[in-house]
Design brief:
The radius of gyration is 18 Å and the shape is globular. A six-stranded mixed β-sheet has the order 2-3-1-4-5-6, sandwiched between helices. It contains six helices and six strands; from the N terminus they run E-H-E-E-H-E-H-H-E-H-E-H. Helices cover 35% and strands 23% of the residues. The protein has one domain (9-188): P-loop containing nucleotide triphosphate hydrolases (Rossmann fold, 3-Layer(aba) Sandwich). The relative contact order is 0.18. It binds guanosine-5'-triphosphate (GTP) and magnesium ion. Magnesium ion is lined by residues 23-24, 41-42, 66, 68.
């Protein structure tokens, strides 16, 4: 029988990164199991929904906010990223400049959504073996040095690590929610108001 209960969590995930790194292709592969070689650039923003995945014992719905990476669309990010629970910052392993730009993107997310919001560094297009210009080791080093919560390498073309990347960010977001819920409970305990004291 179909489970019609509401999800335990609805998470908003941001897809950020320079133009043409493959943000839309990765989202599309995850949701629709399709790859479109002649996909059009994202004008502004587009949305994908993953109805439900199971993370630990929780039912999670994902709202994927896929931003256009061209400079002219960056102005939208500070406002539209508000209330996000997680972020995937993507680069293209064949174009080093796309990795260098991570500071400016993730700075906005941390400032607007909180320093503890999980942000994953994801190197895409690993099927282009001959053209690869950034090694896995370098990607991991940048992720550790710059305080990313997770790292992965993907191919939106052949599907490598697509599911596991979204499952990992979902798990990191659930763990953060557990932490926040615990903090709330201990605050409640401490904040008992006693009249007259
Ligand atoms: N070989 C290969 N090509 C890819 C991969 N992912 C995306 N592409 C191609 O790269 C180009 C850009 O992909 P998009 O998904 O539109 O990139 P984007 O980051 O959404 O770009 P913007 O919307 O402009 O920010 C397209 O021609 C895709 O077909 C991949 O994993 N491997
Ligand atoms: Mg796009």
């Amino acid at each position: 029988m179909r489970d019609t209960r509401d999800p335990d969590y609805i998470f908003k995930i941001l897809m950020l990164g320079d133009g043409s790194v493959g943000k839309t292709s990765l989202s599309k592969h995850y949701i629709e199991r399709a790859f479109t070689p002649d996909i059009r650039l994202t004008v502004g923003i587009q949305f994908f929904i993953k109805q439900e995945i199971k993370v630990e014992d929780k039912r999670v719905k994902l709202q994927i906010w896929d931003f256009g990476g061209e400079d002219r669309f960056r102005i939208m990010v500070p406002t539209l990223c508000l209330g996000s629970h997680g972020c995937i910052f993507m680069y293209d392993v064949t174009r080093p400049s796309t990795l260098n730009s991570h500071h400016s993107w993730t700075y906005i997310v941390k400032e607007r959504c909180g320093k503890d919001v999980p942000i994953m560094l994801v190197g895409n297009k690993i099927d282009l073996v001959e053209k690869r210009a950034i090694s896995t080791e370098h990607g991991i080093e940048v992720a550790k040095r710059s305080g990313f919560t997770g790292f992965s390498e993907t191919s939106a073309k052949d599907g490598t690590n697509v599911d596991s990347t979204f499952e990992t960010i979902a798990r990191l977001m659930v763990q953060r929610m557990h932490r926040l819920e615990k903090e709330d409970q201990s605050k409640d305990k401490k904040s008992t108001v006693i009249v007259g004291k």
